[in-house]
Amino acid sequence: MESLKKRVAEFSQEAHDLYLNQSVPFLEGSPDPLQFYRDWIGPNKPCIIRNACSHWPALTREKVGSKVITVAVTPDGYADAVNGDRFVTPEERRMSFSSVLDVIEGKEHVGVFYVQKQSSNLLDELPELTDDLESHVPWMSDALGKLPDAVNFWLGEASAVTSMHKDHYENLYCVISGEKNFILLPPTDRPFIPYGVYQPAVYRQRDDGEFEVVNQSDSEKVPWIPLDPLDPDLDRYPEYRRARPLRCSVKAGEMLYLPSLWFHHVQQSHGCIAVNFWYDMEYDIKYNYFQLLEALSEVTRPP
Amino acid sequence: MESLKKRVAEFSQEAHDLYLNQSVPFLEGSPDPLQFYRDWIGPNKPCIIRNACSHWPALTREKVGSKVITVAVTPDGYADAVNGDRFVTPEERRMSFSSVLDVIEGKEHVGVFYVQKQSSNLLDELPELTDDLESHVPWMSDALGKLPDAVNFWLGEASAVTSMHKDHYENLYCVISGEKNFILLPPTDRPFIPYGVYQPAVYRQRDDGEFEVVNQSDSEKVPWIPLDPLDPDLDRYPEYRRARPLRCSVKAGEMLYLPSLWFHHVQQSHGCIAVNFWYDMEYDIKYNYFQLLEALSEVTRPP
């Protein structure tokens, strides 16, 4: 078992030596679809594309102020995150776009607000924007031979945090204004990333303004990552010492290609506006190998 | 260890369930480079392309008869194969192309002859052919963004066999005349494929016509696959029962895309002429994962 654990750790090391970059590289302008597939999607490596979405218009209160959108509200900015022995999701509140902008612009409020609904909210909730914003990224759709499965809109306060997780999507994350800050870990670092299984719960703001956590007792337990990469508890999760997180900042007009199954933790500048495109990943040989790595990671981790 | 072994076997099973085909599919005509990358190279899946090399001319005695080429000669057709406790390579003989054609056409001889030298022999030994034959496959070079590393020429007797092995190349195998028969195993079946380490040796025909095996005592031992997929010794290698070989026949005018790291065993019709293009593989995440699988395969196999 010790030799297996050692071999798995060597595997993660080899990934960095063989093909991963020590920082996230930049490309200039919209790439050629085939070259992008060959250099980034196939090898499952992140990059930032500059001058790729700078022609998108600013969102105005005039245009969409009266539209009602879904906002995630939490006491501390941590939506979809482990809190003690529970996995707590935010209170979802329906508000006008104008009211959200009021909060962003400093109107007194309780809790942290984040427009972050991940169910194609851009097209569902703000369809008028798709006249201005593109409904897909043409070179990415060409590369993958399909349209995005979801287009999501993000707008929130500086203290809103997306806890570390991975998605089953090829992700293009476009910053329209402000700045997003990512901590990224490759799938090959999976052996160093702890998972637990948690009781699902949801925040609910009481009439007195305080938040309570309400168990969703009819829901199945949720596997999630308890580790906070901003302040990792290395006594509890010593394997994480071997992980090699990449940090990157994505600025207005830039687009992060976040490959499928990469772990990511996200923060942002106050009022940052972003749109991301989720393209379904392929359940191919890389996914097959990742599943094996997941199993090995659980086998070789001390309980 | 038993549960690890079980998990590794499940992994190979999942590969077949998730994305592998039960037979090798056919494409019609030269594919679009991006689509070919996305559908076959990226996912590391073989296919046969029809009407892809039918415009290549026949080779004539008039044109290249006097050219001297390298021929592999063995007593039994097994070049580069395990024989007892040794890995035996063929006697390499320099002959005119005409003399090889004489052998193919039935002239009495001892041993089995195979033009199979894998060091870009087409360009080195028969450069005049490259006027007629293409020196690369344009859509494949476009897809991979590079030219082939080697172009090899194959011509041999029906009893010449290529023993099971894998290559670190993306391989396009074009049959000009006759037929090649492949047994293919995906890299994910690695856990079921036995490897041994063998003393290198070489065949040498004595003056009396008999072949002897001469140890290359100054050479390092060679890892190779002792199993013959035509007649697998399942008492000795019981794991091979779980392997799921694909068989395919590639006929004149057809081209097999044989992905990197796929195990293959090759036979052919008598006098079959073929040209193959080796493009360097990428040492990327798939290779990284395969290296881990190799290590697991050795750990979980009974000694």
Question: Secondary structure elements and their pairing?
Answer:
The structure is a homodimer of 303-residue chains.
Chain A: H1 2-18, E1 26-28, H2 33-41, E2 47-50, H3 61-64, E3 68-74, E4 78-79, E5 81-83, E6 86-89, E7 91-96, H4 97-104, E8 112-115, H5 121-125, H6 138-144, E9 150-156, E10 161-165, E11 169-177, E12 179-185, E13 196-205, E14 211-215, E15 222-224, E16 246-251, E17 255-258, E18 263-268, E19 273-280, H7 285-300
Parallel strand pairs in A: 1-2, 4-10, 6-13
Antiparallel strand pairs in A: 2-17, 3-7, 3-8, 5-6, 8-9, 9-19, 10-18, 11-17, 11-19, 12-16, 12-18, 13-14, 13-15
Helix pairs in contact in A: 1-7, 2-6
Protein model, in words:
The structure is a homodimer of 303-residue chains. Chain A has 303 residues and is an alpha+beta fold. Chain A is 22% helix and 34% strand. Chain A is built from seven helices and 19 strands. A nine-stranded mixed β-sheet of chain A has the order 1-2-17-11-19-9-8-3-7. In chain A, strands 4-10-18-12-16 form a five-stranded mixed β-sheet, with no helix packed on it. In chain A, strands 5, 6, 13, 14 and 15 form a five-stranded mixed β-sheet that branches. In chain A, β5 and β6 form a beta hairpin. Chain A is globular and about 60 Å long. The two termini of chain A are 14 Å apart. The mean pLDDT of chain A is 91. Chain A binds chain B through residues 3-4, 7-8, 11, 14-15, 18-19, 33-35, 37-38, 41-44, 142-145, 187-188, 282-293, 295-296, 299, and chain B through 3-4, 7-8, 11, 14-15, 18-19, 33-35, 37-38, 41-44, 142-145, 187-188, 282-293, 295-296, 299.
